[in-house]
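Design job #97: recover the sequence.
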């Protein structure tokens, strides 16, 4: 009898690439579909938004409300997005990752569809409750949730299926992972201004670079099915360079903006956080993006998310009133 590999089991539960574990409990398969590893940046985005509001105060009530917003952004809406994407990607996953729950037959499609609807309904329910708590007359949290649900659908599902276009699909993904949770945290504790919307949309261009990293694992399947991911359109090496440049340049652009509003110290800190990203890009990603994608993200992304918080804190010093 083969002893289960704890590391492989953990990779499966987190929804990571290469989690080839066949015999497992159904609840683990449901969790794998939600890809918990993808929740972290969205939950962090809520923290950045709360910081940029300039109005967050450390009370137990605010802490619990922020956790509810993280639940909305991460497990519920990111879980909905990932499950929806796996549902519509079952043909391409049969080529690239046949061990995934749906193409391997580990879970019935009716269970997948039920999970999509349950997560979506729970997401909207939490959004409405947060709007009521914040006293939003326009139900801002519900609108942000609706935008996120719509983007997730047109990203994954035909006829639009934005992921077929490397630029549009990756930007939609970047905006969903940076702009939307940031705006949610901002709106929950402060005032959602056009300044924040524009800044987070620009920051999402760095997120576009991060989203490109995920395309390298599925180049062969994308090519066979005619999906125009950037690695397919530009080749492996050039797409890796585009990804790295997008990540670095737009973070530096945000740092320059912070200088213009008098936040020189935090702008300098943001630039300093970009330096190790460039180092890891050279060490891992640019040399072999297919083999080193996970290693690169694990080493470089912490500096990206710390930079987001630095930017959020700086913006919180200049709230729009």
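Job complete. Output follows.
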């Amino acid at each position: 009898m083969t002893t289960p590999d704890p590391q492989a089991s953990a990779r499966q539960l987190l929804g990571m690439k290469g989690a080839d574990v066949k015999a497992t409990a159904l609840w683990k398969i449901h969790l794998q579909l939600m890809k918990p590893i993808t929740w972290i940046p969205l939950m962090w985005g809520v923290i950045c938004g709360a910081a940029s509001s300039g109005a967050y105060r450390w009370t137990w009530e605010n802490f619990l409300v922020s956790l509810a917003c993280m639940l909305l952004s991460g497990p519920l809406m990111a879980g909905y997005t990932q499950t929806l994407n796996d549902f519509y990607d079952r043909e391409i996953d049969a080529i690239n990752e046949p061990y995934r729950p749906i193409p391997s037959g580990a879970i019935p499609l009716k269970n997948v569809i039920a999970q999509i609807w349950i997560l979506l309904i729970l997401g909207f329910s939490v959004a409405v409750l947060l709007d009521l708590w914040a006293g939003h007359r326009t139900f801002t949290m519900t609108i942000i949730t609706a935008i996120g649900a719509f983007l997730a659908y047109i990203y994954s599902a035909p006829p639009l299926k934005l992921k077929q276009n490397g630029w549009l699909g990756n930007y939609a993904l970047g905006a969903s992972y940076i702009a939307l949770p940031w705006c949610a945290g901002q709106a929950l504790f402060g005032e959602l201004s056009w300044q924040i919307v524009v800044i987070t949309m620009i920051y999402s261009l760095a997120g576009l670079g991060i989203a490109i990293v995920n395309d390298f694992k599925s180049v062969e399947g994308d090519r066979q099915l005619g999906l125009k991911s950037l690695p397919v359109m530009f080749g492996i090496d050039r797409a890796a360079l585009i990804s790295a440049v997008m990540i670095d340049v737009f973070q530096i652009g945000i740092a320059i903006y912070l200088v213009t509003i008098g936040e020189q110290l935090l702008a300098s800190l943001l630039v300093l956080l970009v330096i190790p990203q460039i180092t890891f890009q050279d060490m891992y990603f640019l040399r072999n993006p297919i083999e080193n994608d996970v290693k690169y993200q694990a080493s470089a992304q912490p500096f990206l998310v710390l930079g987001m918080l630095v930017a959020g804190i700086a913006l919180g010093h200049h709230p729009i009133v």
